Amino acid sequence: MAEKNTPEETTEQQEQRFRDEFEVGGIDRELNDEEQLEQLASYFDAHYPLPDFTPPWAGGAGDPDPADRYIAHLPDRITHSAMLMLGSAVDHAMPGVAYIGDVSVEPVPDVGGAVFIPSNPTGRWAVSFHSGGWWRGSGDALEFQWRPEVAAAAELSGTTILDLDYPLAPSHTLAEMNEAVGKAVGYARHHNATSLTGWGYSSGAALAVFNAKLFDALILTFPDLGSVDKLPEGVRGSAQLPAATEWPSTLAQIATHDEIAGRPEGLEAAGHVTTREYVSLHRISTPKVAREKIRDVADFLKTVEKLA
Q1: Which residue, 58, 109, 235, 247, has most beta carbons within 10 Å?
Q2: How far apart are CA 105 and CA 98, in angstroms?
Q3: pLDDT at 1
């Protein structure tokens, strides 16, 4: 908030200060990335209250639908909010709109997923894993928030991406989730993948790390590796995440204002991990940053080669 007027400040100076500090769309100065995120986040806080994201084993209601609906609405709400708060004379297209191209989608019920085939496939494949804290992220959230980004990354990179709608806790264990990953990897290898990348967002990134040995490379988008320790013992079992030094070539995407996930340990010690930072919250960024994040995913996918 602006400070109160001081005795030395004239009325004219006060009015000028108010004009300078009034940060709604159409202002005559350019906000930096930090200020744009602050404007966007403040609008969301005021107009789109967060539902309960607490998992059932931590005292939540156990109904994923309200949280998944919130996530499903994010692309449209971010675009609308950005136009209102940041001005309509710039590009506020989200990745699933800007880069969708001529990608095609085929269901793969045998492994519980969908394959996104770019218009110019290179032979490289990836298996992708949605977020959701291990207990949600399917349904509307999958279709309207996550998979448009998967489609965009596929089209930009020429990579065929199998998005896995993996089984969720608490009805399923981590071992069962890893088994589903193995089936998806087998499907991609059976279709003559020249290389195979594991790409996950948030808890989905942790699932990718669990299966690091199955992949030629990893992409970890805002990875919530700490979510593993919060799983109930009956779901987690004795599984342990491999250290960053044990990962293959990896792109780690870090949100500078992540209110959900902590920065993974050991990134700097692992010479094969490339780290990129984005001015973003865990779920919300400006469309510009969202597009940058997906372009970086696509650029990394283009470089992946099959392990010897």
Answers
A1: 247
A2: 17
A3: 39
Reported as type and span, the H/E element at residue 107 is strand 104-108
pLDDT means per 10 residues, the chain with 308 residues, are 50 60 56 95 96 96 96 98 91 96 97 98 98 96 98 98 98 98 98 97 98 98 97 95 96 98 92 96 98 98 84
> Domains of the chain: which residue ranges?
17-86, 95-301
CB distance 219 to 149 below 8 Å: no
**154's tokens:** 């596929």
Prior bond of 64 cis (ω within 30°): no
Radius of gyration of the chain (CA): 21
CB count within 10 Å of CB 202 equals: 27
CATH of domain 95-301: 3.40.50.1820
102: CB partners within 8 A, 6+ apart: 118, 119, 155
The DSSP line for 53-103 is ---GGGT--S--HHHHHHHHHHHHHHHHHHHHHH-SSS----HHHHS-TT-
For 81-102, b where at least 16 C-beta lie within 10 A, e where not — what string? bbebbbbeeeebbbbbebbeee
pLDDT of residue 22: 52
Integer Cα distance of 282 and 245 in angstroms: 25
Return the C-alpha torsion angle 143, 148, 151, 156, nearest 10. -170
